[in-house]
Amino acid sequence: MTPNRLDNIFSALADPTRRAILARLALGTTSVTELAEPFRMSGPAVSKHLKVLERAGLIIRGREAQWRPCSLDAAPLKEVRDWLEHYRRFWETSFDRLEEYLQEVQTNGDSDGTDQR
Amino acid sequence: MTPNRLDNIFSALADPTRRAILARLALGTTSVTELAEPFRMSGPAVSKHLKVLERAGLIIRGREAQWRPCSLDAAPLKEVRDWLEHYRRFWETSFDRLEEYLQEVQTNGDSDGTDQR
DNA sequence: CAGTTATTTAACTGTTTGGTTTTATACGCC
DNA sequence: GGCGTATAAAACCAAACAGTTAAATAACTG
């Protein structure tokens, strides 16, 4: 059941530690131990988080002597942005307008999703 | 370990079935059975997915006789958009520019993330 | 080569997740 | 009240997840 790119990206982003790591990396490349420092968590735990981020394509790992520096790669976030864009009108439309619209639709048990906007 | 809003939103979005449900709901309110139809999956399974989406605030559930119609609520997506916005410059900046920048930073083992851009 | 440092892998554990089937609830209808 | 339909809840299960500690790997250093 091959999970697609968005699956990996979204689930990588679903963890606060990983988002914090990304925030940290937004300030610049760092080593694993340094990334681990702010979290009360073992090294291997952070290492695993990094692997998840790497699988999602959100970080790139280098080789600097015994360090494997991590750097942010925001390209996948662009994909997220594109996916989100699809729903933009739904949060831009005022709430009341939306609810009103929904009431209309639900009264005639619409099934093929004909969109009367 | 109370998961925060973004945790719930991102993990709700991390499943393809749930994203498909949202896409479906973007076309209009529907019943649970109708939502379930396109997926080869039991009713209760869909019901659980809906609960996840509801917990993330992405859907609103109504009461219409024995139906519990679902409708999209995109407000949480706005939060995601706002979070993403934080990283915008990273995907807008050309890749080469980013890597170049990272090399600079990593050569002086920067730890406090002083951002020289 | 032996020692130190940085990081990963392995093995294990408890919890969450995504699915199942079976049972319960809620409502409308006769 | 009893039946059919729509949905949720319960109980269960296997796989994935997030963490742990201990051992392995890789690179520099003396």
From TrEMBL, chains A, B:
One of its GO terms (molecular function) is DNA-binding transcription factor activity. The keyword DNA-binding applies. Keywords: DNA-binding. It comes from the Bacteria. The keyword Iron does not apply. Coiled coil: none annotated. CDD domains: HTH_ARSR (cd00090). Residues 1-92 form the HTH arsR-type domain. InterPro entries: ArsR-like_HTH, HTH_ArsR_DNA-bd_dom, WH-like_DNA-bd_sf, WH_DNA-bd_sf. This is DNA-binding transcriptional ArsR family regulator. It comes from Phyllobacterium trifolii.
